[in-house]
Amino acid sequence: MGVSKIDLDKLLSGDRRALSKAITLVESSRSDHRAAALELLEGASKANRQALRIGLSGTPGVGKSTFIESFGTYLTDQGLKVAVLAVDPSSARTGGSILGDKTRMDRLSRNPNAFIRPSPSQSHLGGVARRTREAVAICEAAGFDVVLIETVGVGQSETIVSQISDLFLLLLAPAGGDELQGVKRGIMEIADMILVNKADGDLMATATRTCADYAGALRLLRSRPNDPDGFPMAMTVSAIEESGLSDAWDKINELITWRRSEGYFDHTRQSQVAFWFKEDIRQMLLSQLDGAETRERMDALERAIQAGEISASLAADSFINDLKSKRFD
Question: What global pTM score does this model have?
Fold first, then answer.
């Protein structure tokens, strides 16, 4: 079975080989694969399955992989099926993943109720791979209850993850002072929960103080209409000792239950669909710039700009007019 020939029934039954091939298919940039991927996604959507999508980010060294392994194992122990889409930074040379998160989640990767898929970010906005949204849909169709989406890390334009997930967790290490100031306001504004990891041993007291600092910072932010009282919130966890995980899961369920009852959950999903419709159009338009004749025209205009023969604005206007008239076809 090639990647362009995916058995939908096997995918819906949770067959891992079919699942892996389906994600490879939606990540492919080949035009024939793309057509097959769209057909597969259309069929998968008719299953009308829905997972809880949790976005997760954090500063390097905070222990994201350890947390995901511990949290994912906790969820599978509750009888849930968990998929992890770990979006790695891409190699500038090959375009492939360079962190290899799957190798750092050995216990979870061997769990029969878990599925881990490293995926290169391919330099896309926020470190979220362009097709991650479709990979999430594939995992939902395969019957997973929770999909964890790990992004590259704080410092990227992480707001894009809010257009993929139902809830966003920001994982931070015990710190304070300058470190607290270094966490960008924008990241905190999209976080539904801040989890201060490594709250164990000698770091317990520091983690508790850090949690209180972030809780105070969150109270200063403008309240959001889709949050109940007490959210967004900060909590302490220890991925190594596996403490605080049940409390975090309880709070996640509390927030999601409230959003469902108030209609915010469905409204957010509908807004995300509209966002990705527009994003797909943008990407398709950008793909038109990949043709050889298009690149040659751009190179020629660039040389003319550098030689002072034409202004950048006029050159851009000329290029767009040529593109509209399909002179490059």
Answer: 0.85
State the residue for tokens 């999903």: 269
More confident residue, 185 or 93: 185
Report the distance separating Cα 304 and Cα 301, nearest Å: 5
What CATH number matches the domain at 49-262, 3.30.70.60, 3.30.43.10, 1.10.8.420, 3.40.50.300? 3.40.50.300
Task: Please report, for the chain, how many H helices and E strands are present, in that order.
Answer: 13, 7
Q: Phi then psi for 174, rounded to 5 degrees?
A: -60, 125
Structure token pair of residue 130: 């362009």
CB of 216 closer than 8 Å to CB of 180:
no
Angle formed at CA 249 by CA 243 and CA 255, multiple of 5 degrees: 140
Between CA 272 and CA 264 the distance in angstroms is 12
Question: Residue 155: left (phi > 0), alpha (psi -120 to 50), or beta?
Answer: left
